[in-house]
Fold this sequence. Notes:
The complex is a heterodimer of chains A (about 90) and B (about 625). Chain A is mainly beta. Chain A has helices spanning about 30-35, 70, and strands spanning about 1-5, 15-20, 40-50, 55-60, 65, 75-80. Chain A is built from two helices and six strands; from the N terminus they run E-E-H-E-E-E-H-E. Chain A has a six-stranded antiparallel beta sheet. In chain A, strand 4 (about 55-60) and strand 5 (about 65) form a beta hairpin. The longest helix of chain A has 7 residues, at about 30-35. Chain B is elongated. Helices cover about 60% and strands about 5% of the residues of chain B. Chain B has helices at about 25-35, 80-90, 110-120, 135-140, 145-150, 170-175, 190-210, 220-230, 235-275, 280-295, 300-315, 315-330, 340-345, 350-355, 360-370, 380-390, 405-430, 450-485, 500-515, 520-525, 535-545, 550-565, 565-580, 585-595, 600-625; strands at about 15-20, 35-40, 50-55, 60-65, 100-105, 125-130, 155-160, 395, 400, 440. In chain B, the strands form two sheets. Chain B has a seven-stranded mixed beta sheet with strand order 2-3-4-1-5-6-7, with helices on both faces. Chain B has a two-stranded antiparallel sheet with strand order 8-9. The chains are: A mainly beta (about 90), B alpha/beta (about 625). Chains A and B meet through helix 1, strand 3 and strand 5 of A and helix 3, helix 7, helix 8, helix 12 and strand 10 of B.
Amino acid sequence: MTLTLDQLPDLQACTVIQVAPPASAPEWHDWLEEIGFLPGEQVMVMTRALPGGDPLVVRIGSSTFALRRVEAACVRVTVERVVGDEAAA
Amino acid sequence: MKQAIVHVHRGGPLVALVGNPNCGKTALFNRLTGSHQKVANYAGVTVERKEGKLATPAGKNLRVLDLPGTYSLNPRSPDEKVTCDVLTGHAEGEKRPDLVVCVVDATNLRRNLRLVLAVKRLGLPCVVALNMTDLAAQSGIRVDGAALSAALGLPVVNTVAVNADGAAALLTLLDRPDSWQRTAPLGDRASAADTIEADHDVVRRILQGLGLDKAIPHLASDRIDRVVLHPLAGPPLLAVILFLIFQAVFAWAAAPMGWIEAATEWLGNGVAGLLPHGWLQSLVVDGVIAGAGGVIVFLPQIIILFFFILVLEESGYLPRAAFLLDRLMGGVGLSGRSFIPLLSSFACAIPGIMAARTITNTRDRLVTIMIAPMMTCSARLPVYALLIGAFVPQRKIWGGLELQGMVLFCLYVAGIVGALVVAWLIKRFTARNLMHPLMMELPIYHLPRLRNIAIGLWQRVMIFMRRVGGIILALTVLLWFLASFPAPPVGATGAPIEYSFAGMLGRALAVVFEPIGFNWQISISLVPGLAAREVVVSALGTVYALSATGNDTAGALSPLIAHSWSLATGLSLLAWFVFAPQCLATLATVKRETGGWTMPLVMAGYLFALAYLASFITYRLALAAGWG
Lengths: 89, 628
């Protein structure tokens, strides 16, 4: 099942499948990959700001990043284990 | 903007420190170079350039450059572009480094090692400093340096930048001639995305080989974040922290500011006694000493404010504060990153405008600079104190609240609201569809180190003193000249300033300011007030033919203006000072930071219009209320 990161409940561990940036900001693909949102990496939402749940605090690998909801929506994830992924948190 | 090319420490091979943000690079730089640092700007951009010198144990003299932190060699901000340009040898006026030290956070090799691979491809001599190995050990991460070195094909040493001898192994490595040998550049650069993913695979394999392929989060940081970033508890906590900082800036600074004022007065009187009465005495005492004192008096506030900002920055709280405020700032088209510059502007707009350098987005940075002067800076306090004391009765309202204090609070709020409205208007007209990325790292918490705070504080204080001191001093002397010449004719009855150039200017300005209730005395005072707002108080004193310095003037002046001005005029002048762009030092800083005259002129124009409008409305409403 494929979701985007912003749709996940808090503290639900999942795996990055790919980064799909909006057409208006194609550079976000590289930027998100460079800070660690790479296929196969473990990711989860730690908490969200009130009101409106934007921005989000996201754990990627062992780093923590604040992302806006539109940015988190670029990260496509799956909650199932990807076969061959050894980087279990 | 053209700037002189900086070569601070001549000669010696150049070592550049490169690393991810928050990898402890600057702490390592401080450890290597100690107090032998020079802070300047890179040519053509307002990115801070930090260079230091270092002598190795074998006596080799090296220049060390602390490059801005970056996640990749694919830059997304002016800071990161500098790092790229220097490493590729494309930076204007900058030598290509002879050796690169890749600083790597041992607790986060997964992300950090990708940058090492990218730097290695450039073909520069390169060594890896495995930093924060003490924290890594605490988390149970033990890195086999020899195995990592073999896997990367680069020398690797452990460093603990916060320990006194934590850089010893790196220094030894710098003495070995083979560290300085070039590797062959691997020229075939595929597209950036392919490179990232390919590098990621390489790093994964290396970490697997080292048995370090598990991501271990920092549990203590997570525990702190559960409170600090809590959706309900986090914002009030931030408010309390900001409130305490504010209290400290104003309460702790009061005593040293008093000492500085007393010292200025004592020095002025002493010098006045030594010099013969005449223009030279006036220049030195009223121009130079009073002008310099007027700047230095804000130093305690600036030191206290920057101390807290540095502690928050070092500890890792600052990006969290930006996170908590992101939504609020986003509402007016800015991001959480604008919060620090605006906070600093409450002490003085100049360090605030300088702090706007940390904002990566150019538009956000400009908007932040443009609204920073509306934050009520401490130079406005003496003026507010005079006017409130003269026109607002000392009375308690609603359960013990002081009316005077309430008015002061309202003036602060008026400035903040004005700034938010202006930012919102700019957003409406320029950025309706723009999306600004946040993508901001929340680093693990660190206990702030006194040494790093002290070095940071010293650098900021020096920048403030150099820039502001020079500008304000020059302007004060100029305005002293305008206010003192030509001398009044023999037998003149009014204050000498009435006959001077400043007096003529004031009378001309009075025509402009008459509709908002300012008389010619106020108009004259606004002229020297251009140098620094608080000068208006002593200028009013001079105009009203009182000859006393700073504090005494305010005391004697208060009943005088209460008697001779209408309440409407007093309120109008208060409204004027919420917005008035009367600070040439701020405008000069804006010119410097934005690299041209456009922004300072736009700023002066719109703030003047806003101040005039606010005063006009206030004056007319007050007249209508019968307070004329």
